[in-house]
Design a protein that fits this description.
The protein is of the alpha+beta class. The protein has helices at 35-48, 55-58, 69-76, 81-119, 123-129, 131-136, 146-159, 161-173, 176-202, 205-210, 255-264, 275-288; strands spanning 3-13, 19-23, 29-32, 60-68, 214-218, 223-224, 235-236, 246-250. Bound molecules: zinc ion. Residues 13, 15-16, 18, 68, 70-71 line the site of zinc ion.
Length: 292
């Protein structure tokens, strides 16, 4: 079940001998940290030991390897890493929030734009998408026969699928309501995208090749100790007497990951289409389309 009887946490600076010990409110108590953290803590306990004689009953201290603030400032202030650590996570979270906030709006506008296109589709439009596929299927006289239509529509869609998708995208992207929805998103997201890009630009080259992007953490704040779930049994709060100290964690995050995230936040990438769903709707509509 991946529970551990936890009473506190010890932060070990990797660059100096500084150790900061934090006691959790409520003392030793079972906390669900997840299997991965349990393995990690078992290994770290081998390295650092436990301060209590009998941690199973008295409670374990989690070990965290960090860089303390004085060491971090000494090493990373000039390279732009300090600014990144202090701001990047909050900015990325804000951007994610904006993306989520507008996703529903943009999704609704996308669907409306598609339905509008579908409603107004004509034989002429279909022929423009792919003349050769059209002439061999929907354009045939036998398309008038109800029992032939389903097959012919199927053939048309499968042989012209790429052009159909491209045409749908083209049409819905020029829909005024959808444009409005993405423009609203962009106006809110763009300033944050710009701030993140500025942080990345100011990073000195040799650091991002190593992928050294750090996260900041204040040791007196409540913390979710589980990577996968979040509820009261995974979260612990440091005792009120805990000093307000900032520490830095190295992350696996690389400049490339942030750039990819920024690309996914670009306003041109907010229109998402479920192609299979759209194609399904299109087929139904074509089967019902009045014959020539
Ligand atoms: Zn240090």
């Amino acid at each position: 079940m991946s529970w551990l009887n936890i009473r506190g946490k010890m932060y070990h600076c990797l660059k100096c001998s500084e150790i900061v010990k934090v006691e959790y409110k409520g003392g030793a108590c079972l906390t669900q940290i997840g299997d991965n953290r349990l393995y990690e803590q078992t290994a770290l306990t081998k390295r650092y030991g436990q301060p209590t004689a009998n941690p199973n009953t008295e409670g374990y201290y989690l070990h965290n390897e960090i860089i303390c603030e004085p060491c971090f400032k000494k090493r990373y202030m000039k390279s732009g890493q300090h600014d990144v650590a202090m701001n990047m996570e909050a900015l990325c979270n804000r951007l994610s929030g904006i993306k989520d906030k507008y996703a529903e709006n943009v999704g609704r506008a996308t669907e409306a734009a598609f339905n509008n296109w579908l409603e107004n589709i004509s034989h002429g439009n279909l022929r423009e998408i792919s003349t050769s596929a059209f002439d061999k299927t929907i354009g045939l006289k036998i398309f008038k026969l109800r029992n032939k239509r389903k097959d012919l529509v199927g053939q048309f869609v499968s042989s012209a699928k790429d052009s159909i998708i491209a045409s749908i995208l083209n049409q819905i992207n020029s829909d005024p309501c959808l444009r409005d929805a993405t423009r609203q998103y962009a106006s809110e997201a763009q300033p944050i995208v710009d701030s993140i890009r500025k942080l990345l630009t100011n990073l000195k080259g040799k650091f991002f090749h190593k992928g050294e992007i750090f996260r900041v953490h204040r040791i007196n704040l409540p913390e979710n100790l589980n990577d996968y779930v979040l509820y009261e049994m995974t979260t612990r709060t440091p005792a009120t007497s805990t000093p307000d100290i900032t520490v830095f964690y190295q992350t696996n995050m690389r400049k490339k990951d942030i750039t990819e995230f920024l690309n996914s936040c670009d306003s041109s990438n907010q229109v998402e289409m479920d192609e299979d769903k759209l194609i399904g709707k299109l087929k139904k509509r074509l089967e019902a389309l009045a014959s020539i």
